[in-house]
Design a protein that fits this description.
The chain is an alpha+beta fold. The protein has a domain of 84 residues: SH3 type barrels, CATH 2.30.30. The protein contains one helix and ten strands; from the N terminus they run ββββββββββα. The protein is elongated. 9% of the residues are buried.
Amino acid sequence: MKIKKNDTVLVLSGKDAGKTAKVLVAMPKTNKVVVDGVNVQKRHTKARSANQVSEIKSQSGPIDASNVLVVCPTCNKATRVSYKVEGDKKVRVCKKCGAVLDVAEKKEVKKATKKTTAKKVEGEVATEKKTTKRTTKKAEGETAEKPATKKRTAKKAEATVEETNA
């Protein structure tokens, strides 16, 4: 099968013919693909406990891969896919313009990993700041609680003294 996950495809036949969307799942054994917003089916779910809510969910169903054409990211045209060997790898190529279809996916993956590492670094910094604030709040809270407990015990002592005198 020449269609992979995250490819942009054009639907050729069926009730959603003419739509372009992204492939969510590719199933090469059954020669089917699940395309976002195509072949939408409704699924009724019944509440199984008191906490759950009954609802109707919409989900995309699988369609045959032969009803779909890959859209080339460089020429933005629906095209058939051919293969070329570059180095040690077999690469998918656009039949119309000759551009490599697999390169765009690799660049997106690399960019995504860089962004996640930046978020992790920011998250670590944020957690360090939070922990320092928490420790200072705890330290302040401990100093504030000690006199409060002394006052309470003093008030209780005064109350018990007054009760015994009365």
